Amino acid sequence: xxxxxxxxxxAHPIRDRLVALRAQLARAGLQGFVVPHADEYQGEYIPAAxxxxxxxxxxxxxxxxxxxxAGEAAVFxxxxxxxxxxxxxxxxxxTPEDLIGHPPHQWLKGKLSQGDRIGYDPxxxxxxxxxxxxxxxxxxxxxxxALDENPVDAIWADRPLxxxxxxxxxxxxxxxxxxxxxxxxxxxxxxxxGVDAAILAQSDSIAxxxxxxxxxxxxxxxxxxxxxxxRDERPILYVDGRKLSNAVRxxxxxxxxxxxxxxxxxxxAQLGTEGRRVLVDPQSTPALFxxxxxxxxxxxVEGADPVVLPKARKNAVELDGTRRAHRRDGAAMTxxxxxxxxxxxxxxxxxISVARKLEQFRAEAGAADDMPxxxxxxxxxxxxxxxxxxxxxRVNESTDRPIESGTLYLVDSGAQYxxxxxxxxxxxxxxxxxxxxxxxxxxxxxxxxxxATARFPQGTTGAQLDTLARHALWQAGLDYDxxxxxxxxxxxxVHEGPVRISKAGHLPPEPGMILSNEPGYYKTGAYGIRIxxxxxxxxxxxxxxxxxxxxxxETITLAPIDRNLIEVAxxxxxxxxxxxxxxxxxxxxxxxxxxxxxLAFLLASxxxxxx
Length: 611
Hints:
Blueprint: H1 14-27, E1 32-36, H2 52-57, E2 65-69, E3 73-77, H3 82-88, E4 95-98, H4 104-109, E5 117-120, H5 127-139, E6 143-146, H6 151-155, E7 168-169, H7 172-175, H8 179-193, E8 197-200, H9 203-210, E9 212-213, E10 226-230, E11 236-238, H10 246-253, E12 257-259, H11 264-273, E13 277-280, H12 287-295, E14 299-302, H13 308-312, H14 316-343, H15 351-368, E15 375-376, E16 381-384, E17 407-413, E18 415-417, E19 420-421, E20 424-430, H16 435-452, H17 462-474, E21 485-487, E22 496-501, E23 514-517, E24 520-523, E25 527-530, E26 533-541, E27 550-555, H18 573-590, H19 596-605
Parallel strand pairs: 1-5, 3-4, 5-6, 8-13, 11-12, 13-14
Antiparallel strand pairs: 1-2, 2-3, 7-9, 8-10, 10-11, 15-18, 16-17, 17-20, 18-19, 21-22, 23-26, 24-25, 26-27
Helix pairs in contact: 5-12, 11-12, 14-15, 14-19, 16-17
């Protein structure tokens, strides 16, 4: 299994760790310390060796931070984790705060005194994050101090070793473009920007550029490494040599210089000494890298990671591979839904047992299609009843809840195949749903359809599109506290920038981008609802009678949506037509891959509404 369900260890009480950290800070003459959920590579998902926030606080979400002062401490989470944080963290030790509405630097502003020294690890904060803290500290007459050694590491006695997965090439026939071609394109970008080099600090940017994959981070097929793109010379890939077989090293050496990671800061300093102009993304580059460059008199040119947009604009080969992956995954998901339909109310299944069953179906589908399941794309969110209301719930052996009749079951899951990454959420009625459940589900479905059918001009932002998915909920005084859509990679990160569909999504979707469409509704202590498909932004096309071409979306996820939860009277004729057409496509596409009871379930669950 790619997911384990072990309960978090509490061998050493969190309070003891907090006391030890405060003692460490006192010895260093510090009045506080910032602990982000980040590693040295600024990824959202990080290896066990970098889970400092979880080790210190108990909070295991994929986004957050903590600030520890001598007399108080706070843990910051976004809307996805407001319930989870209170389940995992002792609020007597860490006060939960809103990561978005009251971020750490603002919280710290009201706590500082003249002369305070607040420490941070400059490898773990981006340049932009460090600047926000520095400004707050300066305004209070305090100092934000970059530390050579992380004080959490100093007290984390049983810290896991860093990962050492083997690097594997991503074949050109799946990437759709050679690494040499990508490097030339990036060098042209550097020339246009008038810079000599660019720092690549994000692991998925490096994986895409060099057409490589790895397994350094759970569920994310990336290699933890750094890279320097150089305008007039070969790029340099900084990677632990133990991750490279002789064959892979030889292949990479055809297009890049290969160095150990420890050489990276030395080379940055050399660029500075030479007065080179280096492109740095302040949102993703560790503060240490910028400081190393500027201390050596290099010229810092701030701008976006040059790889992020090209990576997000999928080419035709990547899109074809992703569609194949979704057909395979849709068959597995339909087999799972058929199995759940027969077994969900038998009183023997639990959140863990059904999550294991879903992974089994995915493995079988990959084997049958000669495209093995290489990983799941994130820990499966398997939430029964009230656990479904915890947006990013992660079941473990201590929280495992039985699947019971008369409840809703929410499963958000995905797979990593060599040709594509999937992410799908379905909410299923176990037994007979209440009228309220049907009403809420249908409003979420209306929002899902509104986004799936949207036509919009180029330049429309993710925030503008986000309102479409919320409108039906808003009319009933309802909403949800997470974004509606995120980017998705191709056998890469399931959460990919830079575009997102959310209240804070200020960039416009572009043709070829893969995004999620996942509105939801959550009733604390009762149930959760989410419907998620992946969608591809389609090129601009004319609309009959219109005077401007419009972009749109192609839905690529294929699996039935629970008709038992739909209040048909709430749907417009156009919405009914969309759902019937979607189900007809699901049926036509998946039927050849299914047989027996699975096929019978598919045919029954994709009938037109009212049939």
